[in-house]
Amino acid sequence: MAIKKLGFVAVITASLLVLAGCASGPNNGVDQSKVDKAAQELLPAEYLDNGIDVASDIPYEPFEYIDEDGVLTGVDIELINLIGEKLGTKIRVNDAVFDTIIASLESGTNDIIISSMSDTVERQAKVDFVDYNIGGSQMIVAKGNPENITNPMSLCGKTVIVQNGTIQIDLIGTMSESCKVSGKKEITLTQLPDAPSMQNALRAGQGDAVMMDSFVAQGAAAKAGDGEYFDVVNDPDAPNGYDAGFVGIAILKKDTELRDAIQAALQSLIDDGQYAALMAKWNMSANAVVSASINGTKE
Question: How would you write 89-104 as a 3-class SS string?
């Protein structure tokens, strides 16, 4: 009897161990083999169970775009999926219009933003940023640069196209003020909803230049019309682009636990080398961050 009782206890103990093992990880259908446990422990249960909805303005190559095989890709897309692996939760990327992208968080449609969004003090009033890149702005012009645009002052009296809701609006405003102070004609600003419409407008002669993120400008010049449509204006006084600064993943200020989990996951990717490999893959190593800071822009 004693032996039988001991066997019964052993079976019960083994069963409890199995149950404990099953309870140790979330049952959300996501592979948990690449999880950073410390980061995952920071993630609120609702996001671990239900996943994270990510707002992104698509297309904005090379950050987020649909490739020739119909697959959503880009450095932002690959990065947020790696963060999802570190947290062990599902990532759903949803197309969003850039000038209403923060509103999509406020309405509850999305939880975070990854969309080559500059970390600015003004935006920090509504969201916190986990910074993952350093970016600036550059211009593209028609092939051959017929208007001889070489720097901000050569924009005076000309029309510049920018995207709605972007930092380039304020950038051109500052440049236009410099024109005015110098006694030259101000810059005319045209705002359009997305990168394709800006490029089309430039080709149609509806503006003299497009101001956009540096990597987007370089990609457009290299690929559009097999490189025959546009040139990039390389200003030697702004080798990293105009107003270069932090680019971040945006999270509503009230969602501090989600923010901290995202930061910890990104830092884990930096520490294990996956972040550096991703930046190298997209030729952005020179624009990489050394740590996952929060709200790195201070003024």
Answer: CCEEEEECCHHHHHHH
